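Lab notebook, bench 4. Continuing the backlog of folding jobs that were queued last week. Each job is logged with the same field layout so the records can be merged later without manual cleanup. Today's entry covers Molybdopterin synthase sulfur carrier subunit, a 79-residue chain. Filled in by technician R.K.

JOB TYPE: sequence-to-structure
TARGET: Molybdopterin synthase sulfur carrier subunit
LENGTH: 79
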Amino acid sequence: MKIHAFGAAKDITGSSLIDFPVEETFVKVKDLKSLLYAKYPDLTNLPSLAISVNLFYASEDTMVNKHDEVALIPPVSGG
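JOB STATUS: finished
OUTPUT FIELD FOLLOWS
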């Protein structure tokens, strides 16, 4: 599964595009987050981490196909 990472998530993972192995064809977002937290424990230090699937914010129960476009969106601040 290809996962785009932005902002602090990019800094933590070390890349803006992660090739992340997922064994099942479909997983829930909450399960994907658990796998990501296991591989990149510093992601748990973020106050929040949104996941988008095919350009839409996803809930914890959203099903993700390994061919979907997935992105990690950390909290953002601006001025």
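OBSERVATION: The chain has two helices and seven strands.
SIGNED: R.K.
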